């Protein structure tokens, strides 16, 4: 009897097939579990190694034994062809079921691919292929992530302080030429996840090195511990503990020493001249109370809502009151004033206050980027907007800090308002490159694609943002789904949008009917809604509200740069109405076009008139 015939008789080929099918399924499950359960990076490797080791053992067992109705028996005791027994048929069934499972799993993986990496052709409504946002990034040696330092203070109430120290160090390292630094939003996303282990965190952040540490405040003393780790070897390259008296001078000195130690160590590791990489941390205030208030206010602004904006303003106002020469305090106060109107915090003249604070910061320290950026945004949101001056300020901000994602975001918002969609897209992609987890940039990119008519990729981008926990601009998304007559999606998005359009708290059922009911009575429904809104809020719906646009109250609308309607293709009646042109003129957009250039979709028809698609 030939070897092939004997192998076939002993079901070795069937066992090999079953082992391969089951092994492949186990490896896929292992990879999925490693990601979803945050298991160690070596988990799937161990499973694969175990399967490879077990393969020859399985073949030996298949050669020596056979499963029969009476149990496992040595092959020598079985007469005839083993592969004609009922066990052989069962093996065939297992193989068939396994193949079906593999095909099903492959189909599921195809259907659940990340939406941001779509590469297939879009629908006919999409004017060009979508941009692949999520791209593979090679891990280079000159790369580092700064994890948020752990607050070890006894009361556990100094997280803002430990975060602030980490961020100051990160901001210095970002400026080092040739050093790739993971963004703040990406690195700080691993706060409280130290159990994952440095190698896995570094792998996910696409960096070779990681800086971690802790901060402990006790009375008038502070202890800061920092350690630099090579994630590939999981070895400490450098570690040091600083015990100092709690003063701003000592805090800034420690931050400076840590930054210099890192670039020195990486200079040695990378065989580069570390002396040219040395940066200095700006000692912006000598007053500890002012500095702590600044850190508290900055932390509140990062968790942005109406309540936190009020608190942040209060903290930052106290900071600059204590130290009127605190340039960074004035800069962050300008930002808090500037973002207040977008959250309907309108109890003061915040744009004016923001400009004054920004100018104060610039007078104290012309090297700061943020005051120029927020001043640019303030100039653009004036009525009419002073867009040329705004873009000049954005340029000054980027000259001082080319790695500030917020500047690219704010400039993109104004490019979008003006109708320059490709310029907005370029800035938003740069924002995402700098801060991959900054979902507000992703959402604005989705909005840009809607305005370009690239609806398919825009929907997918919004889905990605929602999955990441961002519920920004859901009013835009609900309107787009209504355009496509996708009523279940409209209902779902409205349920997620707890605040209602532009925080007007329009109830979900009314919004759903407004968007989907062809026989909706706009006039009478609006009168009833207005009565209820006034009774609840003591005022009428604000004239800059997106709600007025949806209720077709065009004549009541005023400019709101945070909720512009003039590029949205949802309401063709509005696009044909004279109120579209009126709002574009009132926003200062037409004046900018005349002085500079028109966007591709618009053109002049006379010395004082224009048309847009």
Using only C-alpha atoms, the radius of gyration works out to 31 Å
CATH superfamily of the domain at 147-282: TolB, N-terminal domain
Separate helix tally? 26
- Percentage of residues assigned to helices: 55-70%
Q: What form results from the Cα inertia axes? A: globular
The total beta strand count reads 10
The profile of the biggest β sheet is: 6 strands, mixed
**Binned strand content:** 5-15%
CATH topology of the domain at 147-282: Rossmann fold
Report the uncertain regions.
110-131, 270-279
Q: State the end-to-end CA separation.
A: 82 Å
What does the model show?
This protein has helices spanning 3-9, 12-36, 43-64, 86-111, 159-174, 184-188, 198-205, 248-269, 288-302, 306-322, 327-339, 350-364, 370-381, 387-400, 405-418, 421-434, 439-451, 455-467, 474-483, 487-496, 508-516, 522-537, 546-550, 572-576, 578-586, 589-595, and strands spanning 65-68, 71-74, 143-146, 150-151, 180-181, 209-218, 221-230, 235-245, 602-606, 609-612. The strands form three sheets. Strands 3, 4, 5, 6, 7 and 8 form a six-stranded mixed sheet that branches. It has a two-stranded antiparallel ribbon with strand order 1-2. The chain starts with a helix and ends with a strand. Among the domains are: 3-112, no CATH class; 147-282, TolB, N-terminal domain (Rossmann fold, 3-Layer(aba) Sandwich), CATH 3.40.50; 284-289 and 300-402, Serine Threonine Protein Phosphatase 5, Tetratricopeptide repeat (Alpha Horseshoe). It is an alpha/beta fold.
Secondary-structure map with pairings?
Layout: H1 3-9, H2 12-36, H3 43-64, E1 65-68, E2 71-74, H4 86-111, E3 143-146, E4 150-151, H5 159-174, E5 180-181, H6 184-188, H7 198-205, E6 209-218, E7 221-230, E8 235-245, H8 248-269, H9 288-302, H10 306-322, H11 327-339, H12 350-364, H13 370-381, H14 387-400, H15 405-418, H16 421-434, H17 439-451, H18 455-467, H19 474-483, H20 487-496, H21 508-516, H22 522-537, H23 546-550, H24 572-576, H25 578-586, H26 589-595, E9 602-606, E10 609-612
Parallel strand pairs: 3-5, 3-6, 4-6
Antiparallel strand pairs: 1-2, 6-7, 7-8, 9-10
